[in-house]
Write a sequence for this structure.
């Protein structure tokens, strides 16, 4: 099959060139993070440092001991946010798919309406409301909204629950089980693919959130990684090898999550896109 | 109403209560409140003053030239980045829709930049775009292109932002790919039997079949790019010469740097209405080019 192999060659060349371009920023980051200060801007660029300087990583913490604190803060916000997204979408998704009640379509209509609203118009009033509630400067504004449920995740969960056979709840209902028990004991275990997808996207959303912490967090020791990295870059901007080491550390959790749950990512995006959102 | 119907009504309300409360507290309430802000002059510290239409007139009478600048920049970014992103995402999806080895690896590679946290992404791109030692100029240098001052030259900042946005097409690409893979082989076979070549079948079968996905990506892309903010905030602070002052950045500054809440809320409403108008226009025009299978069969 020599001819076939050559026929594929243009395809491979194109994918290679594109793949390298897409990876370029990341590779530059990883490579610079291992360079000594003097060699960061060497031209032409040396992609693999001769003597990788692993000391750059601990040095980030030496320069800015708070950096480890940023991890704790970020994981706290991310955990609270993702938990809220999962629980609220289970509850509301159930109410919109497996209970028959008169107001259901109205609430579902409301959900669809908020799916496409641009959030920019609520940034300022929300800030003022949280300020009245004396919550500016705390982590609450960053994760409380998740517990009310984001329309997008609820929609995803509802669509998933609609695919489960009706007989599941009917049998339990015959036995006199309450709705909440049906949700908790029968439906939730069956929804693990949807739960996983929502958990992953909610993790990313809260982990990568920049505007939220920028508006609501001002004390240095409460910074999330996104703010912390920006702060680090502002203070130690001349030490690009350290800035890159810090950057690598902030994206590592995301990369680890991505590689362990790659299939769910793809499925999740397909669900969101094909469902028409 | 039977006992079980009553119970279901009660549970229906209880189960959906978080969302309904959230919609009221996080959307409806703030939007109404924001309408009130439009007629106020308020710096959050002293008492708010009622100023009537003053904030609105400031928009139209040219007292805030930065508003027009930010409007122009935002439209520029949207009109270039959205179509290019769609093309790039669709092109990549077509590449990955071939029966080849190594598809999964490429899919992963094309997707990864779009999950990179924005700050890390911006920080790296500052270096890639550096006029003296940045990789981009080094690569362009191989083709004889003189070094470009990207983020330091007002003529090149917006193109640089459009270029960067192409690295983030991963999700759109995957949605396209899913669409391409769901085009029914029977349709393509039928076209082949009718004597269509690959190109014709692509043009007349594949493209119409995935037009709803084009539409979806277009709508979401426009909504997103009108609200572009983070890169401009981190990389250029709106400069040089306000060439990357986008609308959300202008809103942010008015609200949280100059504490002019009323005017910032007015700007936010303007952007909101612009996005809504564009979304409605797209839905209107969708009838002319988006093909829905269920419609044609009726």
């Amino acid at each position: 099959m020599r001819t076939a192999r050559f026929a594929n060659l243009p395809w491979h060349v194109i994918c290679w060139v594109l793949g390298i371009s897409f990876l370029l920023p990341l590779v530059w980051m990883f490579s610079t993070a291992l360079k000594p200060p003097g060699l960061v801007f060497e031209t032409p660029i040396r992609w693999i440092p001769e003597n990788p300087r692993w000391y750059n990583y601990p040095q980030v913490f030496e320069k800015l001991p708070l950096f480890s604190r940023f991890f704790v803060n970020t994981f706290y916000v991310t955990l609270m946010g993702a938990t809220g997204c999962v629980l609220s979408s289970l509850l509301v998704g159930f109410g919109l798919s497996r209970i028959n009640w008169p107001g259901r379509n109205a609430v579902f209509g409301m959900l669809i309406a908020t799916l496409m609203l641009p959030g920019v118009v609520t940034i300022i009033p929300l800030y003022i409301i949280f300020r009245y509630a004396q919550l500016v400067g705390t982590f609450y504004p960053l994760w409380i909204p998740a517990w009310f449920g984001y329309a997008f995740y609820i929609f995803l969960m509802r669509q998933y629950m609609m695919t489960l056979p009706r007989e599941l709840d009917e049998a339990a209902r015959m036995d006199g089980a309450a709705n909440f028990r049906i949700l908790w004991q029968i439906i939730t275990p069956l929804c693990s693919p949807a739960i996983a997808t929502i958990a992953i996207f909610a993790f990313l959303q809260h982990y990568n959130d920049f505007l939220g912490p920028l508006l609501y967090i001002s004390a240095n020791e409460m910074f999330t990684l996104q703010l912390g990295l920006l702060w680090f870059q502002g203070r130690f901007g001349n030490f690009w090898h350290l800035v890159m080491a810090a950057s690598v550390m902030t994206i590592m959790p995301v990369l680890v999550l991505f590689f362990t749950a790659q299939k769910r990512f793809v499925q999740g995006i397909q669900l969101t896109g094909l469902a028409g959102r | 109403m039977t006992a079980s119907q009553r119970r279901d009504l009660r549970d229906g309300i209880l189960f959906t209560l978080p969302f309904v409360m959230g919609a009221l507290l996080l959307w409806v309430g703030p939007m109404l409140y924001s309408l009130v802000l439009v007629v106020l002059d308020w710096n959050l510290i002293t008492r708010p003053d009622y100023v009537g239409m003053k904030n609105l007139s400031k928009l139209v009478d040219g007292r805030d030239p930065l508003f027009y600048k930010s409007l122009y920049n935002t439209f520029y970014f949207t009109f270039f980045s959205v179509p290019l992103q769609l093309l790039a995402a669709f092109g990549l999806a077509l590449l990955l829709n071939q029966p080849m080895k190594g598809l999964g690896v490429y899919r992963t590679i094309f997707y990864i930049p779009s999950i990179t946290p924005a700050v890390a992404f911006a920080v790296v791109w500052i270096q890639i775009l550096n006029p003296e030692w940045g990789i981009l100029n080094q690569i362009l240098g191989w083709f004889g292109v003189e070094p470009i001052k990207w983020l330091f030259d007002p003529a090149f900042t917006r193109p640089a932002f459009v270029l960067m946005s192409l690295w983030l097409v991963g999700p759109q690409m995957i949605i396209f790919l899913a669409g391409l893979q769901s085009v029914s082989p029977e349709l393509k076979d039928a076209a082949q039997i009718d004597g269509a070549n690959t190109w014709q079948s692509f043009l007349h079968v594949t493209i119409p079949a995935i037009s709803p996905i084009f539409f979806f990506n277009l709508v979401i892309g426009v909504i997103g790019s009108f609200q572009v903010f983070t890169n401009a905030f981190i990389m250029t602070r709106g400069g040089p010469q306000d060439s990357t002052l986008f609308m959300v950045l202008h809103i942010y500054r008015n609200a949280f740097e100059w504490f002019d809440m009323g005017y910032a809320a007015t700007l936010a409403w303007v952007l909101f209405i612009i996005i809504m108008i564009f979304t409605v226009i797209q839905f209107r025009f969708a009838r002319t080019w988006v093909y829905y299978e269920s419609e044609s069969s009726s």
